[in-house]
Amino acid sequence: MKQIVTIKLPGAPQGKGRARAFLRGDRIGHYTPQKTRSYESLIFGAAVDAMHDRPPFDEPVLFTLSATFPVPASWSERKRQRALAGEIKPAKKPDLDNVAKAWNDALNGVVYRDDALIVVMFLDKRYGPQAQVVCTVEPVEGSR
């Protein structure tokens, strides 16, 4: 039986923030911004719920992520309908690769042993009636 894990997180998609550096005395330290840590914590919790006590995948996986953004309220009804039909794409921040990176890191050790196991990835940004991110992870056929 093919196992597929689907994780849905309502709310606006967020990208992984760049690590920040600081100087303390003569040493340089790094930290992840609080907004990124909070978002990754939400993803982690949703992933734990979706796994239902199953162990993480320890084989090559396919990672699919769809980031859905709300249509701006200021847009005309005609433009809103075009966006919802997929004719207009959200070519705006956050960058899709940064959204994927936040999800990849948050799912480490929960859905898969390590994100190095991701061998195929499909990503997309779109407008929709409600903001959310939907991610599926599944083993790659014939990879063992």
From TrEMBL:
TM stretches of this protein: none
GO biological process: one example: DNA recombination
MF-aspect GO terms: magnesium ion binding
Record Pfam families: RusA
Protein name: Uncharacterized protein
